[in-house]
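A.,

Following up on our hallway conversation. Structure tokens first:
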């Protein structure tokens, strides 16, 4: 079942993704979620999760893949081009400026401490976004339902594989995706 998609101009798409890219410098995904789901309301939390899943299996940067897909959804190829340009060009200009600043001030202890603090903030933002997505996922299916239990198990296995055992993303993905698809299929058969 398809639903009506509101169209947006390529300029608007460029500006929204430029804002996301500039806000989320060093950790864009939390800002993409906030911008696309909570502020612009272009996507539901579920749609964002689907775009994220698809973007992770495609080659290239995940956020750039999401930007291209969302831009294309709202304005065709021009929207896709506007979104990816918005994700790349403004941060590129900032990186050039920061490189010049780093070359001049990079040896100062205060500068090094500031960079260290920024990395801790980025990790916290990524964790918060993951929690928001998990909460939305479990609100829909419920933790006590069989579907919610399977989702929680897959979430925990992914966390253990990536975070604790430090396996490569591709390995975890190739193991857990077929398990998730099989579980969904079997649960669908029971309820059919």
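Then the amino acids I'd put at each of the 192 positions:
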């Amino acid at each position: 079942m398809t639903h009506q998609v509101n169209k947006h101009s390529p300029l608007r798409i460029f500006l929204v993704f430029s804002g996301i890219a500039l806000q989320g410098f060093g950790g864009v995904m939390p800002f993409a979620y906030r911008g696309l789901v909570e502020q612009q309301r272009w996507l539901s939390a579920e749609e964002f999760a689907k775009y994220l899943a698809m973007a992770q299996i495609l080659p290239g940067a995940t956020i750039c893949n999401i930007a291209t897909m969302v831009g294309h959804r709202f304005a065709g190829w021009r929207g896709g081009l506007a979104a990816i340009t918005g994700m790349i060009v403004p941060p590129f200009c900032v990186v050039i400026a920061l490189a010049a600043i780093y070359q001049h001030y990079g040896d100062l202890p205060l500068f090094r401490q500031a960079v260290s603090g920024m990395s801790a903030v980025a990790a916290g933002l990524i964790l918060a976004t993951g929690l928001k997505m998990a909460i939305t996922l479990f609100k829909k299916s419920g933790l006590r339902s069989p579907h919610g239990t399977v989702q929680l198990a897959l979430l925990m296995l992914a966390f253990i594989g990536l975070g604790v055992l430090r396996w490569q993303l591709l390995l975890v993905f190739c193991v857990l995706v077929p398990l998730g698809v099989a579980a969904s299929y079997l649960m669908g058969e029971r309820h059919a």
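The chain has a mean pLDDT of 86. Curious whether your intuition agrees with the design.

B.
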